[in-house]
Amino acid sequence: MAKTSPGEFIRQVRTEASKIYWPSRQETVTTAIFVGLMTVLLAVFFLGIDTLFGSFVQWLLSLI
């Protein structure tokens, strides 16, 4: 592999950095709200499933 000079390396880094897509503030806020909402919904869902299974196990244990 050929060595790259420091100047060429900097040029390549700048070229690649210019290809980066930075989301707008609105996109970032919308995505953050969506992630927060999904986190809350999944937490409530898993709380319900855990409570249901916990009750089922307690019922099974009470049969013994």
Percentage beta strand: under 5%
Mean pLDDT: 95
Uncertain residue segments: none
Distance between the termini: 71 Å
Q: What are the key terms here?
A:
64 residues; 2 helices; elongated; transport; Protein translocase subunit SecE; membrane
Secondary structure elements and their pairing?
Elements: H1 6-17, H2 25-62
Description:
The chain has 64 residues and is an all-alpha fold. The chain is elongated, with a radius of gyration of 26 Å. It has a domain at 23-64. Helix content is 78%, strand content 0%. Essential subunit of the Sec protein translocation channel SecYEG. Clamps together the 2 halves of SecY. May contact the channel plug during translocation. The chain crosses the membrane at residues 32-61.
Give a quick rundown of the structure.
The chain has about 60 residues and is mostly helical. It has helices at about 5-15, 25-60. The model has no long low-confidence stretch (mean pLDDT about 95).
